[in-house]
């Protein structure tokens, strides 16, 4: 019996990267080979819930929110060390994280740039701070900027860090890649 499954449609940004952005970046960065062009490797979303040691229901809410935002079950992170000042014991659940790859990563990137970032209040651009190896991390103060989150069911605003891991060798290559996707970086001379 023949397989009658229809082929799935490629994410919009992935198609744009393969068709337009890749060759444009090769020219812009003056690279000799198309395989040297930086690409997006993975996106890691991390939500720390420090108060979960006293109130475990906060962690459940963070896991639920991350699952709605990413469409993937988050990994619950545990404390590596005991810290008496914070009433933290080694092995306590203190956060959740999700690593996105493949089509799910491209869909999340598209929704982040087109829908979520424009909904940030008093937005003046993302800071241009890379890690020295072409990777970029920025923080969001509340999860309600994502359209998947039902505002009426939010028990507490939670922030998160979003990290873009690229194959870029330098910060300039990483910035060129994210600029090509349309990241709204702060312009030079623009105050915080």
Number of helices: 4
In oligomeric terms, what are we looking at? single chain
Largest sheet: 5 strands, antiparallel
User: What is the 3D form?
Assistant: globular
Computed CA radius of gyration, to the nearest angstrom: 19 Å
DSSP, total strands: 5
Report on the structure:
The protein is of the alpha+beta class and about 190 residues long. About 30% of the residues lie in helices and about 15% in strands. It has helices at about 10-30, 55-70, 100-115, 170-180; strands spanning about 40-50, 75-80, 95-100, 135-140, 160-165. A five-stranded antiparallel beta sheet has the order 2-3-1-5-4. The mean pLDDT is about 85.
What is shown here, in short?
The chain contains 4 helices and 5 strands. By secondary structure, the protein is an alpha+beta fold. The longest helix is centred in the N-terminal third of the chain and has 17 residues.
């Amino acid at each position: 019996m023949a397989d009658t499954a229809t082929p799935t449609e490629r994410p919009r940004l992935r198609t744009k990267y393969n068709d337009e952005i890749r060759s444009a970046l090769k020219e812009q960065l003056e690279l000799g080979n198309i395989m040297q062009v930086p690409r997006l490797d993975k996106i890691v979303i991390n939500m720390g819930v420090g108060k979960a040691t006293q109130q475990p229901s906060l962690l459940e809410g963070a896991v639920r929110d991350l699952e709605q935002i990413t469409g993937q079950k988050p990994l619950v992170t545990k404390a590596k060390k005991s810290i008496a000042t914070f009433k933290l014991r080694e092995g306590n659940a203190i956060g959740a994280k999700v690593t996105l790859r493949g089509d799910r990563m491209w869909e999340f990137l598209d929704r982040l740039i087109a829908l979520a970032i424009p909904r940030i209040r008093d937005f003046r651009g993302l800071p241009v701070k890379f890690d020295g190896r072409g990777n970029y991390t920025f923080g969001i103060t509340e999860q309600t900027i994502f359209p998947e989150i039902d505002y009426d069911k939010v028990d507490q605003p939670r922030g998160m860090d979003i990290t873009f891991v690229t194959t870029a060798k330098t910060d300039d290559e990483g910035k060129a890649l994210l600029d090509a996707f349309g990241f709204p970086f702060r312009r030079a001379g623009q105050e915080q």
